[in-house]
Amino acid sequence: SRMSTNASMVADFVLVGFSRLAHLQGLLFSLFLAVYLLTVTGNLLIVALVSADTALQSPMYFFLRILSALEIGYTSVTVPLLLHHLLTGQRHIPRWGCALQMFFFLFFGATECCLLAAMAYDRYAAICEPLRYPLLLSRRVCLQLAGSAWACGAMVGLGHTSFIFSLPFCGPNAIPHFFCEIQPVLQLVCGDTSLNELQIILAAALIILCPFGLILSSYGRILATIFRIPSAAGRHKAFSTCSSHLIVVSLFYGTAIFIYIRPKASYDPATDPLLSLFYAVITPILNPIIYSLRNTDVKAALKRTIQKMGSAEI
To answer: In which family does this protein belong, per the annotation (predicted)?
Structure first.
């Protein structure tokens, strides 16, 4: 591997990724390209629908539009580079490129953590405090919640990335992963990293578990309110507005907790990239599917848009 003039500094890394599956490179390229194009198209469609349709102007859809934009950014941090590596077989990434990828991946991921908590608060306010809802989630409050989520993401990305890349990398430069994920990069740091690991696990626990705790408490109150609704139809309607969000939260937080809140020693280069694949590549495509298939308003808006396009053509 190429070294910089300072012997303790690795100038670039090699993303091992799926190179062991040499015979499947073409198939993997086609598969990831199809998933990426569908993810971007699906999420762009939601952004466009929510922006254009006057029926989708409530706080819930304001947050959904941001979530879809986040998913596009989140998947674009890893998949295009992975496609390039699969196509060319060239797997080097400069140190600064690795740091940049880690920053943006953490930035979008942590922002989504906070945004999902804001979306849970929105559902809580709509179901448990319907009379105060316009006040609790005014335009100003929505902007403040969204701004706080982005700020939190930026701080997490900057904090973790600058911290990890200030550590010395002097040995092997092969990252057993398809992108610059914290755990595998940390394995390449020289010397004892147990204190760094502890700091990262504690920070991850704070970033992941605090919003998750807020989501759980929101849903605890929501369920208590739903069970008090006398009619079965009323209960079903109230719960159906939350089910999409609950599925997305379960998928996102389930994998995030498993990946980040554990020691480096338990990292397995054979199975962990597959897990990362799930939350870095698969969950972003599921969001538009979950929200559009389970949400009557989004389905109605899509229908109206198609009808408008049809009548415009005539």
So the answer is: Belongs to the G-protein coupled receptor 1 family.
* Regions of the chain short of the pLDDT cut 50: 1-7
End-to-end Cα spacing for the chain: 62
Name residue 216's amino acid.
Answer: L
Distance CA(152)–CA(154), nearest Å, equals 5
| Angle of the 232-260 helix axis to the 283-294 helix axis, nearest 10 | 180
β-pair partners for 10: 3
- Encode pLDDT of 293-307 as tens digits: 777 888 888 888 888
CA dist 82 and 178 (Å) reads 6
Nearest residue to 86 (alpha-carbon basis) of 28, 35, 39: 28
Best CA proximity match to 133, nearest among 121, 144, 145, 143: 121
pLDDT at 6: 45
CB of 226 within 8 A of CB of 235?
yes
- Residue found by looking up tokens 């600064």 in the block: 96
On whether the CB atoms of residues 43 and 79 are closer than 8 A, the answer is: no
pLDDT tens readout for residues 24-36? 888 989 999 999 9
